[in-house]
Amino acid sequence: MPARSDFPKVFVFGAATAAYQIEGMAQGGAGPCHWDSFAATGSNVVRNEDGARACDHYNRWPEDLDLIRDGGFDAYRFSTSWARVMPDGRTINLEGLDFYDRLVDGMIARGLTPYLTLYHWDLPSALADAGGWTNRQTAECFAEYASAVMARIGDRVARTATINEPWCVSWLSHFEGQHAPGLRDIRAAARSMHHIQLAHGLAVQRLRAEGHGDLGVVLNFSEILPHGPGDAAAVDRSDAISNRWFIESITRGTYPQVLLDTLAPHMPQGWQNDMVVIASPIDWLGVNYYSRGIVSDAPDLPWPSTRGHEGPLPKTQMGWEIYPDGLRNLLIRMARDYVGDLPLVVTENGMAWDDRVENGQVLDDTRRDYITAHLAATHEAIAAGANVQGFFYWSLLDNFEWSFGYEKRFGLIHVDFDSLTRTPKSSYLALSAALAR
């Protein structure tokens, strides 16, 4: 595994989590969110599991922060829960802000740098009832929420991301229906794809006006490759959906025309006037990467008329190909085509595996090799000129993996979901040793 000394001295190594996936939302005054109702609807989530208890990080956060510190990490990427801070989406719950105050102070006391994500998918049910991300008012409420959080903890966080993976918030959730609110509606998809970008822009403008800096966004990217020589159009459409819609609106103030040709009739009225807000300058870009996509043109299928293909490489427990070259290529692409010398941070990279505790140990050599390969890919991107300043493994803990419930384990730390016992995996120990070199 590459050593810490192989990277620039300012390079930050960390681990990442998300509030709904680990905290346990049935405490601390948190209100219901649309993931609660999505999970309560039969067949949406494996075994109808939810985040009510999760990893009980709400109470066990000191132990979890100790694990990050003891592993030799520099930073912790966490998210605040909108439903905890504002149970109805608008009214502040001081108990919620107090929790994040304690959490950030706990990081600093352990020498950990806080990296904040303001929204990692837990939309308060009251806003979901009013249309959620299909409603422009949700974007406006988000700016208010962002302001409230940063007024409390913004003086101590190093970098702040507005939104985590807007593609998942919008396309995956409103067109493919795989995540809350589980819609399959092109009009809802088009509007949510715009409003989630607007929420980002409004929050950046609001926070900038209030004196906050180091503001960015976390986008998930996939390298899209053709299945055959005649599939360039399919690659173009898929790349526009997965990648360009989100990065180009933020860095260029435009949406890909190949998507607007179909989505424009479904967009909210006057959307063009919002583009200058969406393109508000950012200070850094978070890059989430897991795998590649292989597509072919499929005129026999409904729009977007593409067919996905399984690649030949080894797969994770999620069925995703292990393809580290994609991370290197996307980091180089972001620097070359979109952000120039703006700081890039790998805010998520990791894999799920069927990890089991045997004789008090979790031997996950496949994950160790995965981390080794993706750290090497990150190093190659830096050597090629990309200004990559950090790498956060996803995730610190096994957790509630959204529609997969507690079945898929991404963590460096194994969690027994009955006893909640934490057991560091061999990948955690290997990465810790590398960070000490």
Structural class of the secondary structure composition? alpha/beta
Calculate Rg over CA atoms: 20 Å
How confident overall, as mean pLDDT? 98
Report the principal-axis shape.
Answer: globular
Spans of at least 5 consecutive residues with low confidence? none
Distance between the termini: 10 Å
Encode the helix/strand succession as letters: EHHHEHHEHHEHHEHHHEEHEHEEEH
Query: What is the number of E strands?
Result: 11
Major sheet strand order: 1-2-3-4-5-6-8-9
Oligomer: single chain
Question: What percentage of the residues does DSSP assign to strands (E)?
Answer: 15-25%
Largest sheet: 8 strands, parallel, barrel
Helical coverage, percent range: 40-55%
State the helix count.
15
TL;DR of this structure?
With 437 residues, the chain is an alpha/beta fold. Helix content is 40%, strand content 16%. The strands form two sheets. An eight-stranded parallel barrel has the order 1-2-3-4-5-6-8-9, surrounded by six helices. Strands 10-11 form a two-stranded antiparallel sheet.
List the helices and strands and how they pair.
Elements: E1 12-16, H1 19-22, H2 34-40, H3 57-70, E2 75-79, H4 82-85, H5 94-109, E3 113-119, H6 125-129, H7 136-153, E4 159-164, H8 166-174, H9 186-209, E5 215-226, H10 232-251, H11 257-263, H12 275-278, E6 284-297, E7 306-308, H13 325-339, E8 344-349, H14 365-383, E9 388-394, E10 413-415, E11 422-424, H15 426-435
Parallel strand pairs: 1-2, 1-9, 2-3, 3-4, 4-5, 5-6, 6-8, 8-9
Antiparallel strand pairs: 6-7, 10-11
